[in-house]
Amino acid sequence: MTEYEAVIGLEIHTHLKTKSKMFCACSTEFGRPPNSNICPVCTGQPGALPVLNKEAVNLAIRCGLALNCTINKKSVFARKNYFYPDLPKGYQISQFDLPVASRGFVDIAPADGAEKRIGITRAHLEEDAGKLVHQGAEGIEGATSSYVDLNRSSVPLLEIVSEPDLRSAAEAKAYLEKIKSILQYAGISDANMEEGKLRCDANVSIRPAGAAEFGVKTEIKNMNSFRAVERAIKIEIERQKQALAAGRQIIQETRSYDEAAGQTVSMRSKEESHDYRYFPEPDLLPLLISEDWLKQAQKELPELAEQRIKRYQEEYGISAYDARVLTLDKATADFFDTAARLYAGDKKNIVNWLTTDVLGYLKNEDLELSQTKLRPANLVEMLGLIDNKTISGKIAKELIGQMLKTGESAKKLVEQSGLRQITDEAELQKIIQEILNANPRQLEQYRAGKTALKGYFVGETMKRTKGRASPPAVNQILDKLLSG
Amino acid sequence: MSISSEDARHVAGLARLELTDKELRAYTEQLNQILNYARELEKLHTDNIEPTYSSLNTGTLLREDKVCNFTDQAGLLENGPEVAGSSFVVPRIL
Amino acid sequence: MHKLSLKEARRKLWRGETTSELLTENVFQQIQAHEPVVQAYLSIYREQALAQAKAADERLKKGDTDGAPLLGLPLALKDNLNLAGTETTCASKILKGYISRYTATAVQKLLDAGAVITGKLNLDEFAMGSSTENSALQKTTNPWDKERVPGGSSGGAAAAVAADECFGSLGSDTGGSIRQPAAFCGIVGLKPTYGLVSRYGLVAFGSSLDQIGPLTKTVEDAALLLNVIAGYDEKDSTSVNRPPEDYTADLNSDIAGKRLAVIKELSGEGIDAGVRQAIEKMLDKLREQGAVIETVALPSFKYALAAYYLVATSEASANLARFDGVRFGHRNKSARGTLEMFKRSRAEGFGPEVKRRIMLGTYALSAGYYDAYYLKAQKVRTLIRQDYARAFAKYDAVLSPTSPSVAFKFGAKVNDPLSMYLSDIATIPVNLAGLPGISVPCGLENKLPVGLQIATPEFTERKLLQIAAAAERSSGFERMHL
User: Fold this and answer.
1) B1-42 adopts what CATH topology?
2) Does the beta-carbon distance from C331 to B82 stay under 8 Å?
3) What is the overall mean pLDDT for chain C?
4) Domain A425-483: CATH class, spelled out
5) What pTM did the predictor assign?
6) ipTM of the complex
7) What is the C-alpha separation between C44 and C37, in angstroms, rounded?
């Protein structure tokens, strides 16, 4: 049987983090009542004209730089013509043959393979369409009517198009995660797939392994999460393999991913595809980016994940693995940076707590760090309490759970629940003496040579003190009393 | 180049215009007449000529990223042929 | 009093010899008397206008006229200009009942300058036409001869001024839509340099060609209105940031030594003999004033009309896509789905010429034809600009008739789109190159006015108006009064 390899390219649409829309001064705020962020421009009133948002361009330049692209000194906006009820002007202002950025790359490290360089074809600016809310059915199918909300109309988007360099669903996922990380680190976008601030279409084809020619590709749409992207591509590759194995042809078409059914479904073939009739947008002149602007953007480019990974290793002696885990999510890395500034002790302590207890909690609860109430200062305060032996590490493990949930300060929790560590020697000696007295048989066995029973006495002491006894102190006192 | 009434039907579809057969026939003829006149242009050699998309040769204007809300959103909705709550309504799409 | 020029009316107002209310009343009397025949107005704002006039009179009484050069003067607008709270129809069924929610920048500037707005004027539907016969709403006649068209597309704007139904108006010009009707109606029509006047709020036809400009009784009036409406606007990305100028400054300077060139391609075949004669006489008068007049060949002009119709209709096909029945305008209520609703609403709402141009523009942009039509046409624009540049290296201005004929009879060209398009042959190259152009009445042919078109380099409106004023002074042309 023929061995096939997949060829995948992604088109990623990301909202840009601007206050106002791409071509008008309406707010980009998410989640407001329908049509409350609208004006003559973004509703396509006759005679209204677009004026380009400088910050959208700035973020596009920044993204281009972060993706190692050439920033084009001159780029041109074009009208992409098609009719749809959420598209007020009957055309979308986009960029066509002269995008703001072209020819870049990113390096990815997929879970199933070695590090790999993925080419970026281009990144171009465009405006978003409005939103349709379908009535009488869950989706567009079966709906009896649809409500048009133009709050999202003309929100700035950047479309990032990759080269067909991806060879598996896992690579596609790793690439998408990499782009998300860059967008978040560089402050370009919230890149939140749930709110639709990051959307992704995939071009998928297969060919006999080692072949030079590409196979016929399909475009997969409607993938609403990272998991969906990986699954949909996997499913589509399998579908194409089976089709070829059965002697059928792959048709160039657009397919929609149906998550519930776990399959991709044909939407329209190439013959029915749109004729967008692109032409240069006469209401805007070419976008010119000066050398100075470019230099400024370069200077303002924030530290990306790789740079942080390197810095964590160099500055704090953190392992490459830990540094990678810390930087997977920008919020975690930012949390770490703040905590590291506040904490005078060994920064690895922060890493240990973050990567084990905190990330473990997030995973169990399916939460993002930003959704918890834990703040860097609180964690640092808790580490201080461990360092000055106010609490034990074991107690701290209990504390951290509460701190994540309530945001309460470690000190306050310790005061309230009397979790302070017992370090007072006299007090501990009294407790331990009582335990020895209450267990004469075990004491006898110990003294007869069964020294492993020391652990039993430690355990009893911890039980009695509810974990508050300082383990070194307990050991020391036990040694003294047992030998006596 | 001359366009057939099938071409004209396709173009009317792209432009979302419902045309009667009679209109289609008339437009096909008139478009051919105009395009025939436009064939003048074929005689011109323009390979080395840059197009002029605008008579202005400056860069486009840029706006600071400031929010300024439009005050008559209700008025925009009032022009809607069908409105429910604060949404425009369209008949089923599929 | 309605017969006065804008400048004369202003002088009377400023001297306290009349009031804005009286002027405005006069205008409405003239409207009432002649609108049944002229039919220039699509809406008349009698009450609002009189209220504006009264407010202006209050200011005039206090001498509070600073920054208000048009205080109390009744003006009217082509009905493709938005004025918040008023109906803007573009003379189309698709926009009947549409209420503007914002005001065009040029209109706002008139209001800020104290103007009284008397109403909105008829046009070819969406400014597409050369006779105003394409209005879906009403038939405007030429005040010189009610059997004839007023020209177009700003036919209402020209007829209202010619009929003294306002002291001036604003129109829009994509391929001659201000200048040609001005010529047909015996008044002055100015299309400014592309980018001088903000297009914000002008319902777009061909966005890279459209400009708003004045239609007036005199050249000086055109300069006065241009002083108000010109200037940078941060709401229009194609408006140009330049220091303001006083366009009236050179009106009285003589033109001795000015080098003027008659365009060879627009002085022979295709131009009516009577029009040619009127132009010749005008040229003699300019020579008498010391101007040097020669002939210049602009060979790419023969491609201008074709290029124009491809560019303008391509842009229009996109500009008119927003009329889809979703957010405003006509909607077919019986459609069962959105696609059908789109197709029927647009089929019912647009008139035949608009549909024809949408078809042409859509075709010119569609897959496989873009390079042959749209791109080629934009390259022709470059050639036309180069032709002008060569001419302006030697000459101060180029001259031609504004239109190949005088006003024609209703129905004469309706069924022959190409011959209708040919009536814009002289005005179109000016738009393609983005230049300023003006039409000045220069004589009569068969008792109907003939317009002289003058064009100068970009942003040289002062020189343009200077030459136009000299032509006006020497033409001996007299306006008609109904």
Assistant:
1) Histone, subunit A (1.10.20)
2) yes
3) 97
4) mainly alpha
5) 0.91
6) 0.97
7) 15
